Amino acid sequence: xxxxxxxxxxxxxxxxxxxxxxxxxxxxxxxxxxxxxxxxxxxxxxxxxxxxxxxxxxxxxxxxxxxxxxxxxxxxxxxxxxxxxxxxxxxxxxxxxxxxxxxxxxxxxxxxxxxxxxxxx
Length: 121
Description:
Blueprint: H1 2-11, E1 23-27, E2 33-34, E3 40-45, E4 59-63, E5 69-70, E6 73-78, E7 81-85, E8 93-102, E9 108-117
Parallel strand pairs: 2-9
Antiparallel strand pairs: 1-3, 3-7, 4-5, 4-8, 6-7, 8-9
């Protein structure tokens, strides 16, 4: 009888589920075909991103179609967003944007997506 009673009581105790953050929006968008080369990257997540002064635990990387790293500058985290500047005019082609962020809950989120630059010649 005590086991049944305990089961009934625990069924009514509320609990808080913790969800890990997810990428909500991005600029450029995943899969986009752009007529103009982007100059900035902005990623917005469902939850705030952890920021530790002096420690670059969050990062954005950009790679061209040959897997060459294109250095991005001024990576900034504000609340649930991380942004970076693309300091060069990137050429036509397919690019991979990868990111690593640490959510406020301490869980790491890694991801990547592609976009294409197809400027008129």
